Prior knowledge:
Layout: H1 2-18, H2 26-35, H3 37-48, H4 50-74, H5 86-99, H6 118-122
Helix pairs in contact: 1-2, 4-5
Amino acid sequence: MKxxxxxxxxxxxxxxxxxxxxAFYGINLxxxxxxxxxxxxxxxxxxxxxxxxxxxxxxxxxxVYNYSLFAFVFFHEQIxxxxxxxxxxxxxxxxxxxxxxxxxxxxxxxxxWEQSDFFFRNx
Length: 123
């Protein structure tokens, strides 16, 4: 009965705004989620392991920071775009280096046999 009252009150509250923004219809979907018991279990499982998820995210940031620092120091001239500061390169490597399949290697120019660091880059 409580959820039915919540549903109709949310419906009445969002009707004047739904003509202008269709996104207000999404508020009514929360009433459906409240009634599903499985959603409660999912939220509980995420919040119980929130510390572990945050530690894993922190570990990813530290590893990407170390690889970005290594690439910025040793391969600065071989990066496709020119980045003057390390913080710019760090944000680019966080953004595109994680999402791309090749990581930081996709941001760099293709190595040639004639380069002295060809084998060093491929290790």
